[in-house]
Amino acid sequence: MDSATDATRTRLTGLPVHAGTLASRLGGRQHTVALTFDEHAYLSTYGDASLALDTGEFATAWEHYEHYGRRENRLYDERYVRALGLGPIAGAPGDGAGFNIDTVVCCRGGTALIIGWTDDRDSPLHSLSIFAGGEQAWNTTAFGRIKRGDAEAALHAPPGHLFGFWAVATLGNDLPAGPWVIRARRANGRFGQCEVRPRVVSETALRTIILEYFADTEYYGNKAIESFLSLDAGIGVGVVDLNRRITQSIVANAWVSYYGPARGSFLGSVIVCLYGKPEFMFLQLALFSRAPRALEYEFVYVCNSPELTEGLEKEARLCARIYGFSIVLVCLPDNAGFGGANNVAARFARSKRLLITNPDVFPRDDGWAERHAAIVEDAPADQTAMFGAPLFYDDGSLMHHGMYFEIDTGISVRPDGIYPRPMIRVEHYAKGAPAWSRAFACPRPVPAVTGAFISADRDWFEQLGGFNEDFLFGHYEDADLSLKSLAAGRPVFMQDLPLWHMEGKGSTRRAAHEGGSQFNRWLFTHQWGELIAADLNGPHPSSAALRPPASAPVPAFRPKQANAPRRARER
Amino acid sequence: MPPAAPVNAEPPPPLRVLLVSLFHPELVRGGAQQICYELFEELKAQPDVTPFLLASIDSSYPALQKSGACITGFDGRDDEFLFLMQDYDYWWHKSAQPRLIEAFIDFLHTVRPDVVHFHHFFTFGVDLLTLTRRELPDARIVFTFHEFMSICAADGHMVRRTDRSLCTRASGVRCHQCFPDRSPEQFLMRRLWFQRHLSVVDAFSCPSHFMLEFYENWGLPAERLHHVTNGQRRYGQHQPSPPGAKTRFGFFGQLVDAKGVQIILRAVRILRARGFTGFTVDINGENIKWASAAVREEIETFLASEAALPADQRNVFANGGYAIDDLASRMARVDWCIVPSTWWEIFGLVISEAWMFGKPVICSNRGGPGERIRHEIDGLHFQLGDPQSLADTLHRAATEDGLWQRLRDNLPEPPSRPAMAAGFLALYRAPARVGAPA
User: Which of A93, B63, B156, B238 has a beta carbon 3.0–4.6 Å from B149's, enabling a disulfide?
Assistant: First the structure.
């Protein structure tokens, strides 16, 4: 392996691959903890309580707390917080620090977004404590730092310091409705606090707010790397927790209806996740219906846009009559994301073969149905457990012939040091290459295939656990699934089934999706960074699992001009 | 030698032909519906054909909408029906109304046609072609193109919105240039969508030869493309013309951009500027409400200022709209017909009408008029969209001795209704296409 990749691998060491919860993968650190009663901390903080126990006034520290401590909010005292090991070690607690909370938004499920700023140039922000309604309290270090031009202006501060902070903390169900006190604690023990009344929104609305905010945050230096550091700090774990709850709730309330002829069996189930653009249902069904044996496939549409439900129901009725397809329509009450939606759709599929397909994918040839069936029947099983297909742009050039990974390294320069950070980037083989290019062949194993089209053996798909629902909206789930398949012993293949792909035209893109994409890149890097650094980095990965089958004539990869300089350096 | 027919054999049952018409010509005027109705009338006269007409109507005729109905009869006439269009998608050209689709299916099974002949898909939905093939797998489907709406989203005119020039081919990028808010990908999808539905058609017809090449280049199989002329009943005869110079020109058509009346008005200005005023132009037509704002203003401003002139100084006279019964009197006022269309004008019924009344035609040199009018033999061409070229041609027509008579002597007979019907009956009775996809 070349030196550049070796260096990248070193930086990635310590990132476990796809095991356990995300929190454990990120070091097992609890970023947000409840400030509950702890006898040892209580007695060590409050001498009067210790004395009362010695004199026999109270039998236990809890009795003292119940009698005096609760009324006096002793659990929220800075000395107690420090006794719990949550406050800074140095310095003495004291009031007074430039600090403000701009907003707190929370949901019933217990996740809170806190946005504020603090002038911590002399001593950095250490943690935040949240005292909710005088009944419950938490301490969190799940915050990231961001540029705040307004604070800089107000403080007449020169550029360079990140005054802003934002936190995503998972607190708990049934958050108190009363005003909250937020305390910002600095490393020197000084703190400031503000009273705020949180705005309560639905979980999906909170997710949108968080991601839109995330997409718009500004930093000094490389935005991608700085946003990664925010997520590392614990915000990422909070977002994953929130997203999981949302997805589970949405898919549990799926509404399913069936149209067209009921058949005993199908050659395959074409699963399509719709978002924002209903016309792709009739376009796809019209274009896929033209092929011989097409009607031996069913179509399962799953809709992440509840506002489209009624119209899609009409279209499904129309299309079943006009084209003769068996159609399953799975409508969701909100956006469960690409992974969640496709997973729930797969449960309603009635065949052993799943064709995960984007709404803006169409057959390039009229023989798609027979061709797909022939691949599944004739090719070796390990080449069809999961496979992708060549995708073409509207201009006739190749859009996709498998995917590979590149590792970018971002540098974050902070007052206390310089922090490099790897970030995985997913690239498509052949993007923009002419259709007649002979640089790519089928069948051949590839590191990953795009979710725009994946044909999967249903048992294998289920064995892998389907798509990872931790990813937000869409992006990287396809690469994640591909790597799960590779890690389980079956790399994904490219098979010769040419399709059009109107990339990016099949769904509506909103600001929150930009935040979701950044988040997913971060998550994917955590998930697979080590494996990719080991032997999957670059367009020519060294992994033995990706050696082409002996029978397949696979010419050498011919790079696009734009990539040539980078490859030259790697050599 | 084929075996002799048995004596006393039952005659074959009449061919049942369903004509699907964009609008009914008595409700909404237009060339496509007029031709379809002419064909319907002619087929009724054939002893071995039983024709049915299903004509669409939109919300412009609320009095004809019947609550809960999707297809109704029409004015007490036998075998004429109205398709009450609802929820029409003007981009994809499809209905979003399941009830309408169900009604169409029921109608097909009620009529049981051997041939379904679509005169356009507009207002019905292009996907009804596929539905028809699915419901009537043995029926022959014939489709007549009346412009280029399958190819071109700009009203099927194939006139570039960027500079109003004639367009010769559609592509993702070129179409995007006409519709900047739509990406090139959308035009590939549009083409795939239309071609998918047109793929079930057994025979296509175009009234002009040049159209065949356009559709073949676009991707339709050449062997399924046929030329069948538009034909009309004869409702006019050659009219005598006053002796002397032939200085009376006439325009017959809709007052919309594509028909080009504004080119005539610009040519009139040029002639006046040159000091030539010994001519008249009669404008016969209506529907200026469908013209673009700029062209509408140009026409209305010109006509208003013209009307304000003393009578002996006017060259242009606006006579308003007309019905077929009015044609003889309107035609009697002119020596020449001008067909100044600024688009491809795929046939030009007005040319046939001019020939009926013995009027040589001065027309744009492209498209249907350019194909039908033989320059210097039975009419004159001018450069499409060029008022200078038209002004030159008008001046020559009004001043050159013997020109008018020479051209008039060569006028062909307008294509007849029976000739048109014979062309379509040949398509109806052609051998079935094997393996036509659903």
Answer: B156
